Amino acid sequence: MTDPEHDDTALGAQLALEQGVVDEVYGRLDDLRGQAASSLAQVRATRAEGTHQARSERDSFAAMYADRLATYDAVEHKLVFGRLDLAPGSTDAADGDDASRGPRYVGRVGLSDTEHTPILTDWRAPAARPFYQATAAHPAGVVRRRHLTTRDRRVVGIEDDVLDAEALDPEHRSSLAGEGALMAALGEHRTGRMQDIVATIQAEQDEIIRSDVEGVLVVQGGPGTGKTAVALHRAAYLLYAHRERMSRSGVLLVGPSDAFLRYIEKVLPALGETGVVSTTMSTLLPGITATGTESDAVARIKGRRGWGAIIARAVAARQRVPAEPVRFRLGSVDLEIRPDDVAAARTRARRAHQSHNAARVVFVRTMLQTLAKQYAQETGADLAAEDVAEVVEDLRSHRDVRVALNLAWFPLSAQGLVRDLLTKPHRLAEAAPGMSARDRHLLQRDADHPWTVADVPLLDEAWELIGDPIDPERQAAEVAAAQQAREELEYARSTLASYQPGGSGLPEVTAEQLASRMAESGPLMTTAERAAADRSWTYGHVVVDEAQELSPMAWRSLLRRCPSRSFTVVGDTGQTSSGAGARRWADVFDDLDRSWRLAQLTINYRTPRTVMDAATDVLHESLRREGLHPDVAPVTSARDVPGSLRIGRDLPSAVRESLELGGTTCVIAPIDQVDRLRAELDAPGVDLTRQLVVLDPVEAKGLEFDAVVAIDVAHLGPGDAYVAMTRTTRRLTLLGALPDGLDVRDLPHD
Ligand SMILES: Nc1ncnc2c1ncn2[C@@H]1O[C@H](COP(=O)(O)OP(=O)(O)OP(=O)(O)O)[C@@H](O)[C@H]1O
């Protein structure tokens, strides 16, 4: 028989014991923070004297200490959340740690005491893995796993999983206590900002987070299964486990919307990581923001695979051999630009395998030399090298030559080429002879139409083939910058050792990171900032969220950003709303990367079971009606909430009652109603930190709210209806036209 009073005392004693450990860890964090602050103050107080080198060194170290301070601040919340008790004699190959050293504490970062003894294990370290992976069937030497719940710096709860009950001594057995940390996290009110899940990552999620960095990993999972959370934690894990490679090349995260990027922006910093470039497809290319809209039919045409060949043909069409010789006069000599010579120069330039604009230099040089030879033949002179150079320069500046060579090999820009294709029917017909006249007609638009998201991969394709606009000054500056970067890396390597504080528990700063800060292009520019500004940057890893929305052309663009094909792709083909998006992952990846692998997530941590089951019925009904067969696996909700699904009476009362639950409420409606509803409810824009927002289903992708009021779900496509119905953590109220497939008999009507 259990004695409640004894249980309380035992729990109190355990809480006090854990508080002691947590205090020590925070004490160490405070010390390190103090050290970093004083180092920063010291560096800042140093007078920036003399050379550029000395100044940039000072700035770089100042930035490094400022970064450390920011990291210490970011990990403050829930710094310690786990404890592993290992069976006596069990050793861990990862760090040689063994049970005799006492329990192992797991937290956001790794910390050691002043004697260099580890006091906190980084959640990403191999030694922390059993915290997420150990089960009763496979305890991995763990006797007990303890979840610590802290508020501010206070331990307020403990919860134990006994993995090896045999090995537990009676004293330990009586100390088992605590509410489910996971359920507690799931039950919290939403704030409009995603929180990390580091304290409660589940085994199937951990498996994906730590999966091998190489290759394309596709994670399919229904709504709320933690795909976004897993993708972000995987990015943090890879930055930790492959720091050298990732700090040099960076990690790119592609999300569905700016609102989504704001929603998740706090997660990686809270995991101690800031070096990730976040973007949407609309802003993938530096200097271009796609704000235009267009019909789904047009987006679908633009998303088709064949555009690589179409754009290549459009570029090749600007490398032309004239039908007739072009005659001109240089001084008193008659010369001609002959079709055969142009054809030969064109072949030579094409063989250089460079972009159009870079190869143009080869073409022009070849043509000028050919014409200089013709000049020598015509004059019968045996020209010395300087004379040839002079003739070449005269030819280069000759107006007729310039015009003829431009016509033969036109200097292009990606924007100009794509705009021509979309606004000049003859250009598109020439480049896309296989496209139907109807599709070509659909694509045509006015020249001042803003870029759309479906244009971005076409622009990228063109940019790849055409290269940057020709700018000799910039080319020279790039060569000089590359030389300087090499020197700075050498310098950073040689000086870094003396500055590394050591024993801080934080990842060491690499020479590459330091050198990148010293770069002339801006002493405080990080790898991430430089990567974001450079279209041709190739990343160490790319994470793509809501990946089901991307077209085959968008995938081509993204694969270009990481030729080593290290990708984490998360999505749900049941939620696809773009006509150009994916219904089956094999259709996307079999063509792009044969070695792609699939992982599945099956537990919904967001949506109450009643709501999730109804959403699934509606999805299946609408897919059946539309004859669609996406790969969707069944999803089970981790919990239910009484009264979580209801039919509303009218908008004001549905919104009022939703807001009364506390936390956030979102009204989701077909796009043509959104403006009116925003005005009516005084909820303008997409500010997720407000208590009430109005969104269309595409804007709501990836987000979640305490309560959702979904209007006219019957008028939404299958993916959009599924998205709208699965955004809530507590209550879904349906208003207006109800979707087919919903069993309304037992539902409460307001
Ligand atoms: N292991 C976990 N511990 C605590 N919370 C979790 C866990 N896994 C997921 N969650 C929570 O569940 C919710 C849904 O997660 P997330 O947004 O990552 O799902 P998703 O699969 O991307 O959803 P969707 O496809 O519907 O946008 C989030 O609030 C997330 O914090």
UniProtKB/TrEMBL annotation:
Swiss-Prot/TrEMBL keywords = ATP-binding, Helicase, Hydrolase, Nucleotide-binding
The name under which this protein is listed is DNA helicase IV
Question: Which residues hold ATP?
Answer: G221, G222, P223, G224, T225, G226, K227, T228
Molecular-function annotations in GO = 3'-5' DNA helicase activity; ATP binding; DNA binding; hydrolase activity
GO BP annotations, alphabetical order? recombinational repair
What SUPFAM superfamilies does the entry give?
Answer: P-loop containing nucleoside triphosphate hydrolases
Can you quote a single GO CC term? cytosol
Instruction: Write down the InterPro entries for this protein, in alphabetical order.
Output: DNA_helicase_UvrD/REP, P-loop_NTPase, UvrD-like_ATP-bd
Native species of this protein? Salana multivorans
Indicate yes or no for the key word Flavoprotein.
no
Q: List, alphabetically, the Pfam families matched.
A: UvrD-helicase (PF00580)
Q: Where is the UvrD-like helicase ATP-binding domain?
A: 200-608
